[in-house]
Design brief:
Elements lengths: L2 H7 L13 H21 L14 H7 L11 H14 L8 E2 L8 H13 L10 H18 L5 E5 L2 H16 L3 H4 L6 E7 L5 H8 L7 E4 L9 H13 L2 E9 L11 H11 L2 E5 L24 E4 L12 E5 L4 H6 L32 H35 L4 E3 L7 E6 L13 H6 L1 H12 L3 E7 L2 E8 L7 H15 L3
Parallel strand pairs: 1-11, 3-4, 3-5, 5-6, 6-7
Antiparallel strand pairs: 2-8, 7-8, 9-10, 10-12, 11-12
Length: 501
């Protein structure tokens, strides 16, 4: 766009330094930016005929992007061009062929809710500055707690599942040792926590951050499907006590990151009840199954958990970030975390201060992540969210069925969530399974196929090793726009990119 065209379009002026919007100066820029987002970041980026990513190596990408920050302002037209570059070279996570992480899809209603959130720029800690979002959080958390099966509950929105899991460990420690709030950890002994070897790495980080130390997070074995071995859990608890440790929490997982396994929550909860331990369930990934009558049995017993992590930005495909922490212990969050700052939580306010929820959070300033999820839920209804979840499970099963007996494909195990894990052996390796270098060669297949896909922008699928298993692909579905034709496309792309390896 030339400067003459910019002037004609009202975008030729410099951006300016004042923070507030000026209708004469910013109205056309805002509408142009919105048009750019809708056309490029939403519609074009999710079109099956477009690339998932336009891959450029780091040094070359630096040269293409206008990243340098300078003393003088740019024109509004130039700024739009730079934002266009941002969209062009970013990964299109809403694309149907992005099946790479435990977040994907681009929900229109959630996106609009997020736009409204950003435009209003609220911080949710007191009712006086966030009246709508405060009430909205109560409503959404209550509805989610009903699907968990809690009769009473407390909860909050947090900045991601890792922090939600840390809330679980934090509350468990305070529940057992309320004196810690004033006296600290001195004299509490060697606190010990338990989780499975396939649990999310954030549980390890929680143990480090809260001062337990990673050595005092005991990793429990799993069965052949990746579910926590309850008998081994019992042995670990007994051994920890014999060695002078103080067990206080078990972190179970409902939908492990790699295999999508659901720990046997009901049996784990029975152990926790007998042993007097807090049960936290990390359902960040697999919690969405609670909205499906067909699949909620996978989380049987979750109502007995003391606390739960559940991320709507994962299986329910809400925009990032949207993480919920729930507990059945009413008031414990505030008892544990409150600092009673007098400049925020005055007791002589002119309204019911029980709606000032900020003191139960670790954060002070906090985004209104609730709005994007509320907008989605309002637009689709619970029935719509249920259909979304059930389609994901249907498509995952369809993919597993298609590759089950297809040449070169081997399922790692039967999928329990929407994770489908499998190996692909190119024609050159088939029939050579007894060769001493077979495993080494097969280990190199997934990285090479992925490299080819990414460089062409045709698809993004992740791979990883797991314990003694060499590299395998992991297809994960959260995008309910994925259909049977897409499933066939995924299979063909793997075959095409691996045919000559």
């Amino acid at each position: 766009m030339t400067h003459e065209q910019e002037e004609t379009n009202g975008l030729g002026g410099l951006c300016g330094w004042e923070s507030g919007p000026d209708p004469a100066h910013h109205a056309h820029f805002l509408r142009s930016a919105l048009e750019l987002l809708v056309d490029k970041a939403v519609l074009q980026s999710t079109d099956r005929n477009s690339r998932v990513v336009e891959w450029v190596q780091p040094d070359d990408l630096k040269k293409r992007l206008h990243l340098t920050l300078e003393d003088d302002p740019v024109t509004q037209g130039d700024l739009l061009k730079y934002l266009d570059e941002v969209i062009r070279y970013s990964v299109k996570t809403g694309h149907p062929y992005f099946i790479n992480q435990l977040f994907s899809s681009l929900d229109v209603y959630g996106l609009v809710g997020q736009w409204v959130t950003d435009a209003l720029n609220p911080s949710v800690y007191t009712y006086e500055v966030a009246p709508v979002f405060t009430l909205m959080e109560f409503e959404v958390l209550s509805e989610m707690a009903k699907h968990v099966g809690y009769e009473e509950h407390d909860g909050l929105f947090s900045p991601g599942g890792s922090i939600s899991n840390m809330y679980g460990m934090l509350l468990a420690r305070y529940y057992r040792f309320p004196e810690i709030k004033k006296q600290g950890i001195t004299g509490l002994g060697r606190l010990v926590a338990f989780t499975s070897i396939d649990a999310h790495y954030s549980v390890v980080k929680s143990a480090i951050t809260l001062g337990l130390g990673s050595d005092n997070l005991i990793l429990v074995n799993v069965d052949e499907n990746g579910r926590m071995d309850v008998n081994h859990l019992k042995e670990c608890i007994t051994k920890a006590r014999e060695e002078g440790g103080v067990p206080f929490i078990v972190c179970a997982t409902a939908g492990t990151t790699v295999l999508g396994a659901y720990d046997p929550i009901e049996r784990v909860s029975q152990v926790c009840q007998i042993e007097g331990l807090w049960l936290h369930v990390d359902a960040a990934w697999g919690g969405g199954a609670l909205l499906s009558p067909l699949h909620k049995h996978k989380l049987r017993g979750i109502h007995r958990a003391d606390s739960i992590t559940w991320n709507p930005h994962k299986l329910l495909a809400s925009p990032q970030q949207c993480s919920v922490f729930l507990t059945r212990h009413v008031g414990l969050l505030k008892d544990c975390n409150s600092a009673s700052a007098a400049y925020l939580f005055q007791r002589d306010k002119f309204y019911d201060t029980s709606y000032d929820t900020g003191d139960k959070h670790l954060q002070c300033g906090r985004r209104a992540d609730v709005l994007k999820f509320w907008t989605m839920w309002k637009a689709k209804g619970t029935k719509g969210l249920t259909k979304h979840i059930e389609k994901l499970f249907t498509m995952s099963k369809l993919f597993a069925d298609k590759i089950r007996s297809r040449d070169g494909f081997t399922l790692l195990l039967e999928p329990e969530c929407t994770n489908v894990c499998f190996w692909y052996a190119p024609p050159s390796l088939r029939g050579h399974e007894d060769n001493p270098d077979y495993t080494t060669r097969l280990h190199a297949v997934a990285p090479r196929i992925k490299e080819r896909m990414v460089k062409e922008g045709t698809m993004m699928i992740t791979y990883q090793p797991l314990r003694e298993r060499h590299n395998f692909f992991r297809l994960v579905l959260q995008n309910s726009q994925v259909n049977e034709d897409d499933i066939d496309y995924f299979v063909r792309q793997i075959e095409i990119h691996g045919s000559d390896l």
